[in-house]
């Protein structure tokens, strides 16, 4: 088979090649149904070969209930109904109340996962083995299975950019598409965005604590699986970490990598000094020596100093030492003194040992002399808040006449959905600082609006008047009619973007504990719509 023909064909559109046995010409098809050969018009005799990108396998990355709902909608002839879904979270992770705090908890999420979501949407289809598996369930008819074969994402997808700061109940993704497609995508969208945003949020908080010092991501060995470690290393870099130990993330995404050495390297040699010398000789430009294998103050630091001096004599420089256990404040202060007394002022002190934003803050408070922070387990496992509860909710559907806003009412007032097709603006003051977010209905124009009163979503006593603002829409088009219209930024651009966004918030909103609640306000029209729908649904429920 001529490879060049295959290379010219978009595997996202065509999944089968029919080789005409009469004229031997290939015909590219989206399904395996036989059509007349476009070259010679023959219909009878074709060799059918599957043709799709085998590295992607997203079709069945779903919960069974999605396929069951898709089937029921299909059987009722409703599967093509256009609908709107919002994706958002309700409660920020990691935020801990301090003292007798009883009020509402603030906090933020650093949005991440869009890069993977784009790949999912672009490569979303059921391959033949997926169809075969579904057939084996004996739940779905052949007509439906045939429909699944040619199913692709055809809708509109809007999202915040990776690294954006997002607050509770604010949509970070909006999808407008046939209901079948919105249902299909739910599980993998949530899986990707929840896991990556959770980690980027943790990393962003760690960077707040590190206050610009060097941070290295070292979580690979403790991550919940391979993919999580690679995505986690990427998310950490965007959030501001300087390096990762994860070579796969370096290769796949261009995350800068670095490494020191493990205890095993010291244990293996006859003694610590020989181990340090061997490592420093091989890496004269970047050696950080791990000093806690036997005795930090008795042998580790003294041996590192010996090696540092030998390197100096040879015209090189020891980069640093690493502390990995014990009292890091005490050891780092002693280490700094010992290194300085030996004239090794440039030798940096790195520390690792179950660190996170809280231990970093505490160590800094204690005057620890640590220059480089190595962060593994507590970052990559999102140790103190292991899930982000982002949700995917239907908020509107098309009727014969128009769009109809949909609501879901919960016993818990915080869980009542904001209905309808909405836009999200961030309002900036003259100094470029974020004053609040404003959620309104799509048709509402705010270009000419001079003053907005940001109202607390649930507390009518809290409001804030904003004038002279600049309103920036936060949801940008990613897909239009199933085609990607968004150019993914480079990793460096996303990293700069995250830092720039962070700098537009007063630190009260982003601080680690008891942050102020950032104002997110609904427009009057949206509030009225919500109240009207709540009233209608409650009335209806009483009548039923
Ligand atoms: N001065 C300090 N203040 C607050 N926390 C510290 C300080 N020094 C170390 N820590 C933290 O205390 C914990 C120490 O953990 P632990 O006693 O289990 O292990 P370790 O000293 O690292 O030894 P090992 O890894 O050999 O078990 C780590 O989470 C570390 O980050
Ligand atoms: O402490 P973390 O934040 O997870 O950082 C990564 C840890 O991984 C290595 O530990 P290793 O696997 O050698 O285990 P140990 O240090 O706990 O003995 C390294 O020495 C760090 O301690
Ligand atoms: O380079 C390091 O020091 C490192 C990497 C992974 C895990 N622990 C340490």
Write up what this structure looks like.
The chain has 544 residues and is an alpha/beta fold. The chain has three domains: 5-50, no CATH class; 64-201 and 388-421 and 476-518, nicotinate phosphoribosyltransferase (Alpha-Beta Barrel), CATH 3.20.140.10; 206-381, TIM Barrel. The chain has 17 helices and 24 strands. A seven-stranded antiparallel sheet has the order 16-15-4-8-6-22-23. Strands 10-9-14-13-12-11 form a six-stranded parallel sheet. Strands 21-17-18-24 form a four-stranded mixed sheet. Helix 3 packs antiparallel against helix 6. The longest helix is centred in the middle third of the chain and has 32 residues, at 179-210. It is globular. Mean pLDDT is 92; it is low at 1-6. Bound molecules: adenosine-5'-triphosphate, 1-O-pyrophosphono-5-O-phosphono-alpha-D-ribofuranose and nicotinic acid. Its EC number is 6.3.4.21. This is Nicotinate phosphoribosyltransferase. One of its GO terms (biological process) is NAD+ biosynthetic process via the salvage pathway. InterPro entries: Aldolase_TIM, NAPRTase_C, NAPRTase_N, Nic_PRibTrfase-Fam, Nic_PRibTrfase_pncB, Nicotinate_pribotase-like_C.
Outline of the structure:
It catalyses: 5-phospho-alpha-D-ribose 1-diphosphate + nicotinate + ATP + H2O = nicotinate beta-D-ribonucleotide + ADP + phosphate + diphosphate. With 544 residues, this protein is α/β, with parallel strands linked by helices.
């Amino acid at each position: 088979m001529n490879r060049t023909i295959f290379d010219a064909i978009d595997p996202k559109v065509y999944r089968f090649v029919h080789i005409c046995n009469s004229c031997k010409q290939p015909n590219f098809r989206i399904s395996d149904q036989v059509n007349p050969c476009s070259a010679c018009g023959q219909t009878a005799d074709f060799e059918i070969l599957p043709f799709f990108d085998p590295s992607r396998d997203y079709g069945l990355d779903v919960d069974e209930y999605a396929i069951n709902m898709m089937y029921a909608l299909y059987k009722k002839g409703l599967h093509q109904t256009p609908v709107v879904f919002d994706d958002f979270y309700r409660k920020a992770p990691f935020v801990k109340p301090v003292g007798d705090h009883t009020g509402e908890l603030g906090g933020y999420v650093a949005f991440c996962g869009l890069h993977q979501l784009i790949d999912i949407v672009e490569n979303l289809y059921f391959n033949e083995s997926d169809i075969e598996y579904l057939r084996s369930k004996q739940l779905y008819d052949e007509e439906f299975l045939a429909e699944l074969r040619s199913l692709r994402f055809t809708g509109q997808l809007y999202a915040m950019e990776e690294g954006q700061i997002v607050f509770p109940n604010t949509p970070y993704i909006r999808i407008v598409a046939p209901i079948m497609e919105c249902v299909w995508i739910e599980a993998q969208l949530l899986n990707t965005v929840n896991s990556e945003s959770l980690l980027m949020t943790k990393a962003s908080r760690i960077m707040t604590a590190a206050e610009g010092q060097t941070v290295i991501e070292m979580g690979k060995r403790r991550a919940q699986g391979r993919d999580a470690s690679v995505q986690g290393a990427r998310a950490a870099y965007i959030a501001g970490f300087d390096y990762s130990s994860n070579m796969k993330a370096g290769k796949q995404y261009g995350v800068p990598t670095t490494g020191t050495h493990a205890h095993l390297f010291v244990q293996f040699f006859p003694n610590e000094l020989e181990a340090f010398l061997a490592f420093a000789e091989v890496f004269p430009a970047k050696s950080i020596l791990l000093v806690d294998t036997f005795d930090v103050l008795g042998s580790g630091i003294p041996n590192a100093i010996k090696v540092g001096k030998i390197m100096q004599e040879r015209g090189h420089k020891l980069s640093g030492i690493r502390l990995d256990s014990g009292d890091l404040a005490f050891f780092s202060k002693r280490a700094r003194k010992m290194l300085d007394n030996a004239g090794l002022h440039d030798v940096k002190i790195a520390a690792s040992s179950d660190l996170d934003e809280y231990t970093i803050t505490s160590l800094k408070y204690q005057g620890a002399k640590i220059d480089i922070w190595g962060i593994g387990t507590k970052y990559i496992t999102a140790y103190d808040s292991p899930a982000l509860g982002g949700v995917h909710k239907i908020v509107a559907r098309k009727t014969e006449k128009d769009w109809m806003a949909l609501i879901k009412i919960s016993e818990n007032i915080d869980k009542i959905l904001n209905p309808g097709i909405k836009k999200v603006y961030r309002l900036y003051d003259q100094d470029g600082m974020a004053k609040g977010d404003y959620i309104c209905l799509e048709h509402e124009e705010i270009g000419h609006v001079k003053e907005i009163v940001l109202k607390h979503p649930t507390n009518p006593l809290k409001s804030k008047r904003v004038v002279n603002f600049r309103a920036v829409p936060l949801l940008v088009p990613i897909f239009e009619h199933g085609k990607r219209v968004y150019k993914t930024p480079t990793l460096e651009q996303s990293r700069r973007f995250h830092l720039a966004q962070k700098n537009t918030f007063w630190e009260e909103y982003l601080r680690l504990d008891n942050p102020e609640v950032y104002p997110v306000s609904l427009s009057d029209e949206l509030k009225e719509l919500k109240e009207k729908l709540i009233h209608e649904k409650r009335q209806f429920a009483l009548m039923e």
